[in-house]
Write a structure and sequence with these properties.
heterodimer; A: about 350 residues; D-Maltodextrin-Binding Protein, domain 2; 4-stranded mixed β-sheet; B: about 300 residues; alpha/beta; Rossmann fold; Alpha-Beta Plaits; 4-stranded antiparallel β-sheet; 10 helices; globular
């Protein structure tokens, strides 16, 4: 394998990519725009306080507010309401986020699932109030030390799962489309055949393509982290975020192998694009990229185990946002590499140099 | 049959089928060093398959072949730097300029960039060096494609229908370049479906149809072998029918379609002097047989390229 050939092939491919405006928009600009869009949407829903209707007298809530007025005041406003049916209808209409009543020793929280983020927030908020009360009742020290920060830790801020999710989708698309389109268009223009007639090994060609895709994926990672950590979005990277680099690399290999397989079968660029879309787009919804798996219906969560994207997204989420240690990424890395190995082996068997 | 490895290319009994279709059905020929060799025939005759087997892109079903003394199949890395291949379509990297394109190909062969720039001069693309290849005209793209095939200074060059999609002017420009490549001492193997192109460029041609070589030899020899009459034509109305018949009586047939008066003869000197005596040479054309007539005689049908 000649180093000069590898270098010039990589350079030719990188130039081809950098000059392809559509590819640039698709692989870097669009995911960032999605981040802007989703990020500001979710940001606003969560930044607003939850408005709670207190139906009748809720001793637990009054007690909590009395002992920690400032902290609770930051996250909720409480309005009194006399009638349960009126309160429920208000919650249903979305005028209020939750209605709460006390029945004996049971705290009942009514919320609407129309806004799942808020619903999750309300639940965790009251869960922690009850927890505090129980701890106090059991005679342990502490009193009410409920803080807004404590509440937020329980429900991950949207940007913390949004950024890894959208980044995962961007990397999956970049890898799969990059490999499939390159293979099919090079076969179509007979460049593949021309390269076969040059004294350059297949390994060099593949290695150059993989190198370029890895480079593009790392640029996507850098752009995402750069934008998501801006104060406006407020992504807080946890200590072992750098473990996302090997995850991104392995994810790129896995999705390139999907693209390679698509490209081995597809005859035209159009069909390669269509097939890759049919694979990647549903996976973005079912694999946790667009819909966070925590909030997704159970069946999506079940299906997601079959989606390579799940391992890429959750792997990144764990080390970037959830503060898991470096070792937590190893299963995801193993699964992604396994997918890459299996699909590449199949692709090699069905590979065609020529359209005929 | 003994294979002459001293020849640049030697092919004996080559066969290649795709399914039930015999694309190449037992052909044999040799190409000598420095020769300009043409493989000629209508679309689907088996020209491209023959070339692909010679280049080492396809495995022959049967037959023996040697290219520069080596077997081209399986892919032979020792052979690749010694041959240059220009494919039917222009196979380029996307969105590179002319200069980057040929520079990339040069480095695949370990050739310095300076040599790549020289090649651009040879094919007359100096001024387009900074242009993206997608923006080149058909003729320019073909020139670049040839330059990329020659950048590593190969001994043997394969050109697959280099003038296929070009307009007549661009074709003639390219012919000059192809002649020059051959004059530099390289062996050139060209496929074409243009009979005139083969006649103008090639030292020898193999005329193919349905996967077989019908005739092999220098174009002029093949044409002379037909022993067909020369056609001498002048404007209609210069001669009376009686005069025309009198000239034709010396040996030949005369026809008049109202625009052109044509003599078909094997004694052109007699007819020409007869016309000159009567000062009736306006619009004179003298046409010998062409390779198309050879094809017609070999296959019994009109040539359609």
């Amino acid at each position: 394998m000649k180093l000069g050939a590898l270098r010039s092939l990589s350079r030719a491919m990188l130039r081809g990519f950098a000059r392809d405006r559509a590819a640039l928009v698709f692989s870097i600009l669009m995911p960032v725009l999605f981040l802007l869009l989703f990020g500001s949407l979710y940001k606003n829903t969560n930044a607003a306080k939850v408005s709670v209707l207190e139906v009748g007298k809720v001793a637990l809530l009054d007690q909590a507010r009395a002992s920690a007025p400032r902290q609770l005041g930051q996250v909720m406003t409480v309005t009194r309401s006399a009638s349960l049916p009126t309160a429920l209808s208000d919650v249903r209409k979305g005028s209020y986020d939750a209605a709460v009543q006390q029945q004996g020793r049971t705290l009942v929280v009514h919320y609407s699932i129309a806004d799942q983020t808020t619903a999750g927030f309300v639940q965790s908020l009251f869960a922690s109030i009850v927890q505090q009360y129980d701890a106090q009742a059991a005679g342990t020290k502490g009193g009410y030390t409920l803080t807004a920060a404590q509440v937020e830790d329980k429900s991950l801020k949207p940007i913390q799962y949004l950024a890894p999710g959208l980044l995962g989708w961007a990397i999956a698309s970049g890898g799969a489309f990059g490999a499939a389109i390159t293979l099919v268009s090079w076969r179509e223009t007979k460049l593949l055949r021309r390269l076969r007639l040059a004294p350059v090994s297949t390994g060099s060609i593949v290695l150059a393509r993989v190198g370029v895709s890895l480079g593009v994926a790392l640029i996507q990672l850098a752009a995402f982290i750069g934008i998501a950590t801006l104060p406006y979005f407020g992504l807080k990277l946890s200590a072992y975020w750098w473990m996302s680099i090997p995850i991104v690399a392995c994810g790129t290999l896995a999705f390139m192998s999907i693209g390679l397989l698509v490209g081995s079968f597809a005859r035209t660029q159009q069909s390669a694009t269509a097939v890759a879309n049919v694979i990647i787009l549903p996976m973005a919804f079912l694999g946790g990229a667009f819909i966070p798996l925590n909030y997704a219906p159970a069946w999506i969560n079940d299906v997601s185990y079959a989606m390579p994207l799940r391992y890429l997204v959750l792997g990144m989420q764990d080390v970037m946002a959830r503060g898991e240690g470096p070792a937590s990424a190893l299963p995801a890395i193993g699964i992604l590499l396994g997918i890459a190995a299996v699909l590449t082996a199949i692709s090699v068997r069905v590979f065609r140099w020529d359209a005929v | 049959m003994v294979l002459r490895v001293s020849a640049t290319i030697s092919v004996q009994g080559l066969r290649k089928s795709y399914g039930s279709l015999a694309a190449v059905d037992g052909i044999s020929f040799e190409v000598e060093q420095g020769e300009f060799f043409g493989i000629l025939g209508p679309n689907g005759a088996g020209k491209t398959t023959t070339l692909e087997v010679l280049e080492g892109l396809r495995e022959p079903d049967a037959g023996t072949l040697s290219v520069l003394g080596l077997p081209p199949w399986p892919r032979n890395p020792a052979l690749l730097p010694r041959i240059g291949v220009q494919l039917q379509s222009s196979s380029f990297f996307e969105r590179l300029t002319v200069r980057e394109q040929i520079g990339t190909f040069a480095s695949l062969y370990g050739v310095p960039a300076r040599r790549a720039d020289e090649m651009l001069t040879v094919v007359g693309l100096d001024e387009s060096a900074g242009v993206r290849t997608e923006k080149l005209s058909g003729g320019q793209a073909q020139r670049l494609s040839i330059a990329c095939a020659l950048v590593h200074d190969p001994e043997l060059v394969f050109l697959d229908e280099p003038t296929g999609a070009l307009d007549p002017q661009a074709r003639r420009n390219l012919w000059d370049l192809l002649r020059q490549i051959n004059a530099d001492g390289r062996t050139v193997v060209l496929t074409t479906h243009h009979m005139d192109e083969a006649e103008v460029l090639c030292d020898r041609v193999a005329i193919m149809d349905h996967g077989r070589v019908l005739e092999l030899g220098p174009p002029a020899t093949l044409v002379r072998g037909l022993d067909s009459p020369v056609r001498i034509s002048v404007e209609s109305g210069l001669l009376s029918a009686t005069d025309a018949a009198a000239i034709a009586a010396a040996g030949g047939e005369v026809t008049d379609d109202g625009v052109t008066l044509t003599f078909a003869t094997r004694q052109p000197a007699t007819i020409l002097s007869g016309l000159a005596d009567r000062h009736s040479l306006a619009g004179l054309r003298v046409q010998g047989a062409t390779l198309e007539d050879v094809f017609l005689k070999l296959t019994g049908r009109e040539y359609r390229g």
